[in-house]
Amino acid sequence: MVRNVLAFILLLSSIAPQSVGQERGAPSAKEEERITKAVRHELLMLPYVGVFDNLAFKVEGRDVTLLGQVVRPTMKSDAESRVKHIEGVEHVDNQIEVLPVSPMDDQLRRRLYRAIYRYPALQKYAIVPQKPIRIIVKNGHLTLEGVVDSEADKNIAGIRANGVSGVFSVDNDLRVESGK
């Protein structure tokens, strides 16, 4: 009897780690890709995301880290809420920064928008619904985020931004889309 119980316990202990590993193990590459696509879709579908917001994310297994900067606090909570409900996501680390409320920064954002998007060489970026050049202003300091077609467009955007009065510094983090 004792021998049978011991054999049964050994049998259970050899099965248990495999079933736990299957439940909690890392997702397949296909599932991680599906989660990545779903997170991207949910963030793009958020209402009121504007040119002054920068949303990014990182997927590691079933964990999602939200990154970036937003003007409205509700945008931060909305992004987290949407991502939490995606099938397969177990944990959301919301590291989105809410930019400080500042009338000076708001005025600077408007001037920067006009300086960049009304410039003839950059007007092509103004016609798409999701503006590819993001204008992030925090306490007078500017960061340009997003994707442009060429190194020349990146440099023009940086020069236009530097020419706006009231900007303390400009970080041009625009990426040039390869293949164009």
Provide an overview of this structure.
There is one protein chain. The protein folds into 2 domains: 29-98, Histidine-containing Protein, Chain: A (2-Layer Sandwich), CATH 3.30.1340; 103-176, Histidine-containing Protein, Chain: A. The N and C termini lie far apart (75 Å). With 180 residues, the protein is α/β, with parallel strands linked by helices. The relative contact order is 0.11. The model is unreliable at 1-23 (pLDDT under 50). It has 5 helices and 8 strands. The strands form 2 sheets. Strands 1, 2, 3 and 4 form a 4-stranded mixed beta sheet that branches. Strands 5, 6, 7 and 8 form a 4-stranded mixed beta sheet that branches.
For this structure, the quaternary state is single chain
What CATH architecture of the largest domain would you give?
2-Layer Sandwich
Distance between the termini: 75 Å
Mean pLDDT: 86
Q: What overall form do the CA principal axes indicate?
A: globular
Residues in helix, % = 40-55%
Order of helices and strands: HHEEHEEHEEHEE
Number of domains: 2
> What share of the residues does DSSP label as strand, in percent?
15-25%
Record field, number of beta strands: 8
Question: Which segments are poorly predicted (pLDDT under 50) over 5 or more consecutive residues?
Answer: 1-23
Round the Cα radius of gyration to an integer and report it. 23 Å
CATH topology name of the largest domain: Histidine-containing Protein, Chain: A
Q: Which class best fits the helix and strand makeup? A: alpha/beta
CATH class of the largest domain: Alpha Beta
Number of helices: 5
Summarize the main sheet.
4 strands, mixed
